[in-house]
Write a structure and sequence with these properties.
Blueprint lengths: L11 H56 L14 H20 L39 E2 L8 E9 L18 E8 L1 E10 H6 L4 H23 L25 H6 L3 H4 L3 E5 H8 L10 E4 L2 E4 L2 E6 L1 H4 L3 E5 L4 E14 L3 E4 L6 E4 H4 L1 E14 L5 E4 L5
């Protein structure tokens, strides 16, 4: 009967083999997953490396473009000089006067100065086509006179106290600063406008205000010229000041020598002031021919980080360049702009055979006198200048 019974189930050997197979499948699955993860990580690493390489390429291109000055140098618009604009305006006035009054001079009736400027039916506006001058002296160090007399001395430090290491209990050195003097002397500059009382009464133009505005503009022209060329009365400007450094400049690239010729504290804030024709020449350089130290930044030409300012040739001279900080110029006004009025004096206009005497009270004329008393002192050794030869 026992032989007839059927034994059901799985042999222990089969159970063990199955378990081993299941574990092997699990291990193989984990290995496969790990391999796939490794492949995915390798792929992402390769993609990141390619992306980094692309970014580095773009960065290199941007740096190269910056170093090559991607901003193209183009010919600057040629500005007319103050002299040219003045001539054109005078010609315009001459045509108006010829049409209305024959050959009368402005503010003149026949020969004497003082009659009608323009017809009374003109609009009460006067058009000014002259260049609006920029007051360069406004960048100077203002030191009001504030003392009596026509001359004064300003103490300035030539050498500071010298420090030294001192041992314990040792005597300290005595080192007083060294002082010098800057001598200043007031100079008077003035002009007079003469006109008839009828002109004041009949004109629709505010003539006193007009004359003051144009006199102030003329004063700016005067001080700008004094600043660079002196006033011809023993007060030299920057171009003629004693001690101004004059390095040798062999070509346009040598402009950098100017900057090295002045003290470091001036180099930090100084500007290049140059002839407008030379400025146009530099502005006309192409991107490939421009040196690396010459570039534009926010529309401003710069040389080695310093701003370049174009001045009229009549102000600074043909192909002249000055480097320095205008803050090292002392502008000391006793009165910066004074207006005086009279109708009783006798005033002589012109010299020699062309002289005309105006008896203001007798001829019903009035005169406005504009004047300034001031001194402009240049600290010569803080500036450098040169005449730049034409580019070869």
């Amino acid at each position: 009967m026992e032989n007839e019974k059927t034994q059901t189930g799985t042999a222990p050997a089969e159970i063990g083999a199955k378990a081993v197979a299941e574990k092997l499948d699990a291990v193989l699955s984990e290995v496969s997953a790990a391999k796939e993860a490794a492949q995915e990580a390798t792929k992402k690493a390769q993609e990141a490396e390619a992306k980094n390489a692309d970014l580095q390429k773009k960065l290199d291109e941007a740096v190269a473009a910056k170093n090559a000055h991607s901003v193209a140098f183009v010919d600057a618009k040629k500005e007319k000089s103050v002299k040219e604009k003045s001539a054109e305006f005078r010609e315009f006035l001459a045509q108006v006067k010829a049409a209305k009054y024959g050959n009368k001079a402005a503010l003149a009736s026949a020969t004497p100065t003082g009659s009608y400027l323009v017809d009374t039916d003109f609009l009460p506006e006067v058009l000014d086509f002259l260049a609006k001058p920029e007051s360069l002296i406004s960048q100077a160090r203002r030191l009001p006179w504030g003392t009596e007399g026509n001359t004064r001395n300003i103490p300035n430090i030539l050498a500071r106290s010298t420090w030294a290491n001192v041992g314990e209990g040792a005597a300290k050195p005595v080192s007083n600063p060294t002082f010098g003097n800057l001598k200043q002397e007031l100079v008077k500059a003035a002009c007079i406008v003469v006109l008839t009382e009828e002109l004041l009464a009949d004109s629709s133009i505010n003539l006193p205000a007009l004359f003051q505005d144009q006199a102030r503009a003329g004063l700016i022209d005067f001080t700008n010229n004094w600043l660079f060329n002196g006033n011809g009365q023993g007060h030299p400007g920057i171009l003629g000041a004693s001690g101004v450094l004059t390095p040798t400049v062999a070509n346009i690239s040598g402009l950098l020598a100017l900057k090295q010729a002045v003290p470091g504290y001036v180099r930090a804030n100084g500007k290049y002031f140059m002839d407008s024709a030379l400025y146009s020449e530099l502005a006309g350089l192409t991107r490939m021919s421009a040196p690396a130290w010459l570039y534009y930044e926010n529309g401003v030409m710069r040389i080695d980080n310093s701003e370049v300012v174009a001045l009229d040739t009549t102000l600074i001279g043909a192909r002249n360049v000055v480097f320095g900080d205008l803050n090292n110029v002392l502008f000391s006004p006793k009165n910066e702009f004074a207006v005086k009025y009279t109708d009783v004096a006798s005033i002589v206009e012109g010299t020699g055979d062309d002289a005309v005497t105006h008896n203001l009270f007798q001829e019903d004329k009035v005169a406005y006198r504009f004047e300034m008393r001031a001194d402009i002192t240049v600290a010569g050794n803080t500036f450098a200048k040169a005449t730049v030869p034409s580019a070869s």
